[in-house]
Design a protein that fits this description.
The chain is about 85% helix and about 5% strand. By secondary structure, the protein is mainly alpha-helical. The protein has one domain (about 1-130). This is IFT20 protein.
Amino acid sequence: AMAQAALGAAGLHFDELNKLRVLDPEVAQQTAQLREECGAFLDRIVEFQKIVGSLIELVDQLAKAAESEKMKAIGARNLLKSIAKQREAQEQQLQALIAEKKMQLERYRIEYETLCKIEADQNEFIDQFIFQK
């Protein structure tokens, strides 16, 4: 025991297999334990980085999908606007056509009234001509 204390003072120690060591067995065990814990910690960090990487990838995909949907929506809105403009133009053309047909109808009505008057006058003339004979 005295020899062990003298060796300990010199920084030398015996391990459980009675081999001579420079490091205190307890310190050596703590060092090994710390090495294992550091290894486990590094493994967890690597796993965490993988998870974060896949999360970033997923968010990236969602952003691209959202952008794509936004572009589709803009396209659809523009299409609707152009359809609405076409309808408006068609409506204006039809209104102009209706106005034109109304004017034509009015001309025909006046022409018809005139012809009716002429017919009445001619019938009257024929009646007078027949009575004169």
